[in-house]
Structure formats: C-alpha cells, structure tokens
Design goal:
Strand order of the largest sheet: 1-2-3-4-5-6-7-8
Helix content: 25-40%
Order of helices and strands: HHEEEEEHEHEHEEEEEEHEEEHHH
Number of helices: 9
Oligomer: single chain
Radius of gyration: 20 Å
Strand content: 15-25%
Structural class: alpha/beta
Length: about 300
C-alpha cells in the first residue's frame, strides 16, 4: 500500500480528516493492532505478545521488541507506509519468543539490531535446543552494562541492572521523552514468568527494580512488557514499587510454607494468590511458586 492510500484508509477507518504525522497515529485502530502516542514521538504498539515501543518521526524509526512474526509483519507494513528508510534501531529487551519471534521480519530493514549479551546467548541456546536456529534472527550488536545512540533529536540508552526475569533484561530509556521500556521486568498486576533456565533470580529482581526507580526517578513514564486484565501497559514509579512488593511477598510466602513443612505440591494445589499482594492475578501463580521454591533451596 502506498503512503497516500494508507493515510486515506486510516482517515476513513476513524472518520477523521488527515492530520499531521504525530496526530493521525495517536490511538488509531488498525485491524492488526493499536498505536498509542505517549509523548515526544514515542508510541506503544499492541497486538499479541510483549508490548512494543516505537520512536516514530518522518525521518527516523526505532522499534523495541517484535512480538510474533504475524504481528511484526503487520507492524512493518504500517511503518513502511510512512517511512522510506529502514529502522535506525531494532532492540530486544530479552530473548523470549513473544518479544523476539518477529525479528526476522525486519532482517533486511534495519541498521542496528541490539540486545544484552546474555539475551543473545539465551536466544541462540533456546533456538538450538529446539532445532530452530535457522528460524530466528539474533542481534548483531550486544552490550553488557550500558549502551546509547542518538536517533534524530532523541537519545536512546540501554541499561542492564543485573539478573531478574532472566539474566539478560535490558531497560530501554528514551531520555528526552523520559520513557522507559521495562520489558518483562514489570508484569503489571499479572503473575510473571520467572525464567530460572535463563538465570532468573527473584531476590535480585527486587533489587533491580529498586535500582531502576532510583536511576530514572519519579517522573519517568514506564512501558511494561505485560499487564493483567483491566490494567494498563504503561505506568509510573509506583507500579515498579508494586511489582517489587509482589516479588518480596512471594518469597516470604514460600519461605514460610517451607518452614511449616508444607510440600511444594500442597502449596501449588492450595495457592491462588500471593498473600500481601492480591492485585496480581491471572494464570501462572504456580510458575512463581516453583521459582521461589527453587531459589530458596539454592
């Protein structure tokens, strides 16, 4: 679809006149997903999988995470309708498939593809274990503690604060907009996945969220990898605090159960929420319990 046709289709779908670049993207619904403008040309794109964040201007584009191939194809089609140039940056916050399976869609349409060094190693290992190495697109650039690049008037900086959800979780800071994509370091009021096979550590995860809050301050706007039903995929310092509290209560709950002689099987059979953090719901509490149990035995 040509750019003019795309804009005409978008205007008809929303019943609005054509607007400048930033305005027509805001909260615009496409059959494939939602773009929502946050501020300073930073958007979220939601369809299926981990939340995508984008920097989009007429001259530049940055994409953080790619969901699955179908969703990444939808996103690329939308971006190509308004951007003649390939992505300046493709960033993966970590290696999980709901954040990286769409990478190959951008194989020939990006300048730099980056992730934490451990995230690349994890993605490669998992692909080899599943005989799918030929189907993935690994980052060509990695970092260890911090990395940055200017993209137009925006400064994009990646931070690694230590093992948490995995041992390769990057936080992506759009410095001028003061927006931080946390990847899966925050599941907003939803039971998280704790990937012990990739070096996850609940205790350190709590510390990582504390480091992030101190580093970015109270004025940062955060984009979360996932959110529970009826909860937003963006939030504030308070949401990071709530995530850390949930993790702390999870460790405390499992530790108490072990001290009273409960078995893991009994704990799994009787637990539907974490005492002290009832706002976290959905499927997957057993993943948290198993990870906490394993960690307390290390």
């Amino acid at each position: 679809m040509h750019r003019r046709q795309f804009l005409q289709s978008a205007s008809l779908a929303t019943g609005t006149l054509l607007l400048p670049h930033q305005a027509w993207m805001q909260n615009l619904f496409f059959p494939t997903g939602f773009f929502t403008l946050l501020r300073n040309d930073i958007y979220t794109y939601t369809e299926r999988g981990g939340t995508i964040a984008c920097l989009l201007t007429p001259e530049h584009a940055v994409v953080v995470d790619t969901q699955f191939q179908e969703q990444a194809t939808s996103l690329r089609n939308l971006l190509e309708a308004t951007h003649a140039q390939p992505l300046d940056l493709l960033i993966n916050t970590h290696h999980h498939g709901d954040h990286t399976s769409g990478n190959p869609v951008f194989r020939d349409w990006m300048k730099t593809h980056i992730a934490h060094i451990n995230a690349k190693a994890n993605q490669e290992r998992v692909a080899q274990e599943n005989n799918k190495l030929a189907e993935v697109l690994l980052p060509t650039t990695t970092f260890e503690d911090e990395w940055s690049q200017s993209v137009g008037s925006e400064k994009v900086r990646l931070h690694y604060f230590g093992p948490a959800h995995t041992n390769g979780d990057a936080m992506v800071h759009f410095e001028n907009a003061h927006i931080v994509h946390t990847g899966d370091l925050v599941f907003n009021r939803r039971f998280p996945y704790v990937d012990k096979s990739a070096g996850a550590h609940i205790g350190n995860w709590i510390d990582v969220l504390g480091k992030a809050r101190r580093h970015f301050g109270k004025d940062a706007l955060y984009v979360f990898g996932h959110a529970g039903d009826d909860y937003p995929i963006t939030g504030t310092d308070e949401d990071l605090k709530m995530m850390a509290h949930f993790l702390k209560m999870s460790l405390r709950y499992v530790k108490k159960a072990k001290k009273t002689g409960q078995s893991l099987e009994n704990l799994l059979a009787t637990t539907t929420y974490i005492p002290g953090a009832p706002a976290f719901k959905g499927k997957g509490v057993e993943r948290v319990l198993k990870a906490a149990w394993e960690e307390l035995e290390e």
